[in-house]
Write a structure and sequence with these properties.
By secondary structure, the chain is an all-alpha fold. It is built from two helices and no strands.
Length: 80
């Protein structure tokens, strides 16, 4: 499978070093909004910030691997 990360469709590794690290996606989003750096996140997580002008998309030709979206609801009530 080709990845459009470079002109040849090959994977491109870029070492990144920074002083901030988190496994909480809300924290990473907030840091980006506050101007502390860039965030590698799904557009679905940032669409409101991009529409409001708080964030802009950069490096759009570089894509990460596709990750399936799963949702688990803990409720006994039937959902529509």
């Amino acid at each position: 499978m080709n990845n459009p990360n470079d002109a040849l469709g090959d994977w491109l590794r870029v070492p990144v070093h920074g002083r901030l690290r988190s496994d909480d996606s809300a924290v990473v989003r907030q840091w980006a909004v506050e101007g502390h750096g860039i965030a590698n996140k799904s557009n679905i997580d940032l669409v409101d910030d991009m529409k409001a002008g708080r964030l802009v998309q950069i490096l759009s030709k570089y894509k990460g691997p596709a990750i399936p979206l799963s949702l688990i609801l803990g409720t006994a009530k039937p959902l529509p």
